[in-house]
Please model this.
Amino acid sequence: MHDIKAIRENPAAFDAALSRRGLSALSPQILALDADRRAKIVAAETAQAEQNRASKEVGAAKARGDEAEFERLRALVAQSKADIARLTAEADAQDVALRDLLMGIPNLPLPEVPDGKDEAENVEIHRWGTPRAFDFPPREHFEIPAVKPGMDFETAAKLSGSRFVVLKGAVIRVHRALAQFMLDTHIEEHGLTEMWTPVLVKDDAMYGTNQLPKFAEDSYQTTNGWWLIPTSEVTLTNSVAGDILDEAVLPIRMTAHTQCFRSEAGSAGKDTSGMLRQHQFEKVEMVTICTPDTHLAEQDRMRDCAQAILEKLEIPYRTVTLCTGDMGFGAQRTYDLEAWLPGQNTYREISSVSTCGQFQARRMNARYRAAKTETGGGKPEFVATLNGSGLAVGRCLIAVLENGQQADGSVLLPAVLHPYLGGRTKITADGQLA
RNA sequence: GGAGAGGUGGCGGAGUGGUCGAUCGCGCCGGUCUCGAAAACCGGAGUGGGUGCAAGCCCACCGUGGGUUCGAAUCCCACCCUCUCCGCCA
Model:
């Protein structure tokens, strides 16, 4: 959510940033609402102050036994009650209206974010590894002989419909190894703290990380009102909602491995084969809570953590900075990591690392108290929040399988996974670990 | 699921209708004292909003939302959460 004071102080800058995201100027509408709201607040508070004064006089009259004056004042106060109720309701309504409006406006891109309409205009900033030269036509993951016995879409369809998968045998073991490997690396080498969180959350959490109010149709809700998280960004980030943190505890760098649930509404026909895009998938997520002056450095750090995973897995990838037209609702800047998928002969998104600045913190009311200095401090300020995949486990499995496939139908597995697989180094063409 | 207890400021803990935004203790910050520190003493200190150049003033907040009343942290209703015991259970 945006800071109304910042918009008030510099509406032109606000509108200019909005236009970079392809939105028309909103500050006139916002400022009009804001002015109206403040006028209503003044009216309501003035009336309330008068009543409070009168009430004290009533009490005083009663105390000195002046019954006539007591009754006169009492009637007066009683009369103004309805007026106050009306004014207060109006002020509240304006407040809600402004909040609703601000809630629906996306975050503003940082100056260094490239302008652009869509993903075609993202800017590559880093490339690692060289795609293997195949002396046979590389297959997509679900067509590799070694994989086929362990990736069962028919059974999943029987159970749940399309966009689900049943994994078995060697394939799920590699999947599990991947998640463990990612977590262990983040914990031991990157200094992140592992968390285990609910995957069912209340409305408030979904508002905090921007899923609500605009993107309700992208998530699933239970009959009693809980939401299934589309990413553990929701639980990790909202873990500090409403808090006033001591600056000394920042930055807080977390990671979690959870199931994620997405309806994929609007993605009909997109990536329908294989397990690239599922309703249910696993992700190792990273979330950082930090001070606003450190968030850019923290974002680079987080990106490096994600890149390190791909490098250890020996998967060629490239990193892009998303252009204004491709950024998510809450992001100020986003790096996407795209893994090389030989079966598709292209790079596909496997991680997205975003800083939201104070955007989510304002929604969640998550603050920190800056250490006192001569110049100030000591006052609560909103924290900055960042989130990134570290990585999407299912997509990472795809990348490992496609990049490791051999002419004979087997798959060679990256060395860092061998310890997690009892020393086994490959999946044979008939689907066995060996 | 059943029974009971409880939700007050960073923490502990008072407060059952009228200057209570809230006694007190601890912790915290500033000062006095000290070579320095501790102790002691003095003083300060919540959050959000509105208004104002500012000092300040005003409004709201004692789990949440309603209600009663001239007036509510205090009374009433609903809900949420926590704890204890019992039951069930991965």
